[in-house]
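Recap from last week: sequence in, structure out.
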Amino acid sequence: MWQNHATWIRHTHLFSADEYECSNCGSTTDKPKPTCPHCGAAMGGEKYDPSWVDEAAMLDIILGDK
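Predicted C-alpha coordinates:
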Protein backbone atom coordinates (compact mmCIF):
# COMPACT_ATOMS: atom_id res chain seq x y z
CA MET A 1 0.00 0.00 0.00
CA TRP A 2 1.36 3.39 -0.95
CA GLN A 3 1.77 6.16 1.57
CA ASN A 4 1.30 9.92 1.20
CA HIS A 5 4.89 10.70 2.29
CA ALA A 6 8.19 9.21 1.15
CA THR A 7 11.88 10.05 0.70
CA TRP A 8 14.22 10.00 -2.25
CA ILE A 9 16.99 7.39 -2.08
CA ARG A 10 19.97 8.79 -3.99
CA HIS A 11 21.98 6.17 -5.88
CA THR A 12 25.42 7.46 -6.85
CA HIS A 13 27.32 5.67 -9.63
CA LEU A 14 30.94 5.78 -10.78
CA PHE A 15 30.39 6.36 -14.48
CA SER A 16 26.84 7.68 -14.76
CA ALA A 17 24.68 10.36 -13.24
CA ASP A 18 22.99 9.99 -9.87
CA GLU A 19 19.48 8.60 -9.86
CA TYR A 20 16.77 9.03 -7.25
CA GLU A 21 14.45 6.22 -6.20
CA CYS A 22 11.11 6.77 -4.47
CA SER A 23 11.04 4.90 -1.15
CA ASN A 24 7.30 4.44 -1.59
CA CYS A 25 6.92 2.90 -5.06
CA GLY A 26 10.50 2.31 -6.27
CA SER A 27 10.27 4.42 -9.42
CA THR A 28 13.41 6.35 -10.40
CA THR A 29 14.07 9.83 -11.74
CA ASP A 30 17.17 11.82 -12.69
CA LYS A 31 16.65 14.57 -10.10
CA PRO A 32 14.67 14.90 -6.87
CA LYS A 33 11.26 16.50 -7.16
CA PRO A 34 8.77 17.69 -4.52
CA THR A 35 6.48 14.74 -5.31
CA CYS A 36 7.01 11.36 -6.94
CA PRO A 37 5.85 11.51 -10.57
CA HIS A 38 4.67 7.88 -10.38
CA CYS A 39 2.79 7.54 -7.07
CA GLY A 40 2.33 11.21 -6.13
CA ALA A 41 3.85 10.85 -2.64
CA ALA A 42 5.12 14.08 -1.10
CA MET A 43 8.87 13.85 -0.56
CA GLY A 44 10.27 14.59 2.86
CA GLY A 45 14.01 14.47 2.32
CA GLU A 46 16.68 12.27 0.88
CA LYS A 47 18.65 9.18 1.91
CA TYR A 48 22.04 8.24 0.51
CA ASP A 49 22.82 4.80 -0.91
CA PRO A 50 26.57 4.39 -1.50
CA SER A 51 26.13 1.86 -4.33
CA TRP A 52 29.18 3.35 -6.07
CA VAL A 53 31.35 1.52 -3.49
CA ASP A 54 30.18 -1.84 -4.86
CA GLU A 55 30.84 -0.62 -8.40
CA ALA A 56 34.37 0.43 -7.41
CA ALA A 57 35.03 -2.96 -5.78
CA MET A 58 33.86 -4.76 -8.93
CA LEU A 59 36.11 -2.55 -11.06
CA ASP A 60 39.06 -3.42 -8.80
CA ILE A 61 38.34 -7.11 -9.30
CA ILE A 62 38.09 -6.72 -13.08
CA LEU A 63 41.32 -4.72 -13.28
CA GLY A 64 43.13 -7.02 -10.84
CA ASP A 65 43.81 -4.28 -8.31
CA LYS A 66 44.08 -5.27 -4.69
